[in-house]
Each structure stands twice: as C-alpha cells, then as structure tokens.
Design brief:
Elements: E1 5-7, H1 13-22, E2 26-33, E3 38-45, H2 49-68, E4 78-84, E5 87-93, H3 99-105, H4 113-132, E6 135-136, E7 145-147, E8 152-162, E9 165-172, E10 177-179, E11 186-187, H5 204-207, H6 215-230, H7 240-251, H8 256-261, E12 270-271, E13 275-276, H9 285-292, H10 297-304, H11 309-319, H12 330-334
Antiparallel strand pairs: 1-2, 2-3, 3-5, 4-5, 6-11, 7-10, 8-9, 12-13
C-alpha cells in the first residue's frame, strides 16, 4: 500500500459494504490518509488485465462525475487513485453501510415510507445527474446505495414476535445516501453488452434482448423502492422465464409488440409466439408457488404502506412500465406528487 495510507482494521463497516460491490475482482480497505488526516475507503483491484482495464474505465467515469459535480449529485467521491504492485487502487470518501446491509441487520424490517421518500429523492437525483451526463449506471441495487453515516437509533417494541418478546427496530439517524460502484456504467453512445443489471433489478427489455438505455436504470429504481418499503426484493428469482412470469403476476401481461421484437434467445419463453409459456415451462412446483404468492402492485404496496400509498403506487407504476419509452425519466419522477410531503 502507498506510504501515504495505512490500513485500519478496527471498524470495517464501510469496507464490508463497498466490498459487496467489488465482487470477485478486488477488496475494499478502510485506511488512514496520513496527508489529509482522515479515514478513507480504498478499492484494491486484483492484478489481472481485464479487471485493471475495468478499473481504469471506472476511474474515468468517477473523474467525469466529480468534474461536473456541484455537491448535490449524491454520487460517491473519488479522492485519488494509484497503481500499487500492479493493483489499481481507487481512494474514496468513507461512508456508512449499504441500504441492503442495514435492512439485513434490521431483520429485513422495511423502512418507514417517509424515509423511503428521502432515499428515493436522492437516488433519482443521482440518476438524473448521471443521465444528464449521458451515463447509465446499469447496476442500481440497495447494495450500491450507501448511507453517509453509520449512526442509528434503536426503537423498541416495533413488532411482537412471541407472547413475551417484542422486535426492536433500527433507523438511521440521517437519511443522506450516496450511490457507489460505477464499474458497469456506460455512456449511451457506447456499444452495450446484451446483459446488464443484477438479476432482481433487471428490466424486461434486457431479458427479452431488445437493447437498453436510460430507462433500464428507472426500472431498477422502481424495484429498489418496493424493496425498501417491503423489506424484501420484489422479484426473488434467478431464471428468466420465472422472472417474466413474476412480472406478469405483478403488472399484467407483457405487451405483444415487445414479445414480437424479442430476440431469438427469448423466443423459448413464449408459446405460439405471444403467450408466456407459464406455468407449463416452470422448472419446479416451487417456482410456480413463488410466482403465485406475489400480489398485484397496489396490493403489495398496501400491505406495507399506509400514508402516501396511493401516490407511491402511482409513482411505481410509472417507473415499472414494461415499455421503456413510456417509463418515467428521472427528472419526471422527481416531479411526481409522491415527493411532496403533503401527499396522502
């Protein structure tokens, strides 16, 4: 490690959260910056050519984001980068836990809708900022959204789990968040890979091989907001046909014009060209049960949200439109009534 930085192993909170985004090609270490006299997070990328190349692309994206940032982008800040024994090391500001890890530590207790509103507003502002720069994140998920602070408060007696035991609830002291992991970000005018996004947050146009652009990020935002309100991912699946069946269960039939344009690889998911091959094509009875237990979107939201449920449902319908061109843009979503605290 550069002599400017020393590794600090006492509190690995932000390290663990950022590491979840790094995956197999590196680690994130919490370090003390001797020059600025502050703790930072350093993403250390393995010394393998393809990982190094990807890291340098991420550095370029991060520097592009930072250059245009007026302090309100809600994107993680790159401090510097260096090459250490053929490992690319990217220095970031230190942040708190991811929204996913906060949910996990909270036994998947959902966030209050007012907190979801604040998270959603900031997330959409960061997406709008990226899109204005012609960048598409392509991997939005709760693991890639970090709380700025690790501080939280514990509220007792939230939920009864037995006759003599009440489940406590933790809430972050601050709603401030930042978006991380730009390793998969792409400029709109670049050649696009066919598959993007982590499975649970992948838009239908990606699964159907129709190509993708800015709207794929907004689909992911919709899935994230449902998860923050309910405590669990909307589409808990690892298989394309089941994923499409889950979408139809929640939103209704896929549009015929999208099915007609699906690529050859997606044709096997449909029968007679236009009807989803479900449940006939299900791989197991468990798969059929997983689909059948899902509710329509408005019913799902109503189970977990009381105040603002109508405006939230309307916002989610706009973000989770099948047809990408009909989906709300980030700027349009920010103007939605849900982000007015007086909504009912």
């Amino acid at each position: 490690m550069s002599t400017r930085f020393c590794i600090f192993c006492h509190s690995a909170c932000v390290i663990q959260q950022l590491a979840s985004a790094v995956g197999t090609f590196g680690r994130v270490l919490e370090c003390w910056d001797r020059q600025t006299r502050e703790y930072v997070a350093i993403k250390v990328v393995r010394s393998i050519r393809k990982y190094r190349n990807a890291a340098m692309i991420e550095v370029d994206v991060l520097q592009h984001l930072a250059k245009n940032d007026k302090g309100d982008s809600h994107c993680v800040q790159i401090r510097s980068w260096f090459d250490y024994r053929n490992h690319i090391c990217i220095v970031f500001e230190k942040l708190g836990p991811s929204l996913f890890d906060f949910l996990k530590r909270n036994k998947y207790c959902p966030f209050p809708v007012d907190l979801v509103r604040e998270f959603g507003r900031q997330l959409l502002e960061s997406v709008a900022y990226m899109h204005d720069l012609r960048l598409i994140h392509t991997d939005l998920k709760p693991e890639n959204i970090l709380l700025v602070s690790s501080d939280y408060v514990r509220l007792p007696g939230y939920k009864k789990v037995s006759s003599d035991e009440m489940l406590s609830r933790c809430l972050p002291k601050s709603s401030a968040i930042k978006l991380i992991d730009f390793g998969s970000a792409a400029f709109d005018n670049q050649n696009h890979s066919s598959i993007v996004s982590t499975r649970h947050y992948r838009a239908p146009e990606v699964i159907l091989g129709l190509g993708w652009s800015y709207p794929c990020d907004l689909w992911s935002v919709g899935c994230i907001l449902v998860e923050l309100c309910s405590g669990e991912a909307l589409f808990q699946t690892h298989e394309n046909l089941e994923h499409l069946a889950m979408m139809e269960r929640v939103f209704g039939p896929l549009p015929e014009h999208m099915i007609r344009r699906a690529d050859k690889g997606a044709e096997k998911y449909f029968r007679r060209g236009l009807r989803l091959n479900w449940p006939e094509g299900a791989v197991s009875r468990e798969s059929i049960r997983a689909v059948n237990k899902l509710d329509r979107l408005k019913d799902l939201v109503s189970q977990h949200v009381e105040s603002s449920r109508f405006s939230l449902t309307d916002l989610l319908h706009g973000l989770l439109m099948y047809e990408p061109s009909e989906r709300l843009t980030a700027r349009q979503a920010l103007n939605h009534p849900f982000f007015n605290n007086l909504t009912s």
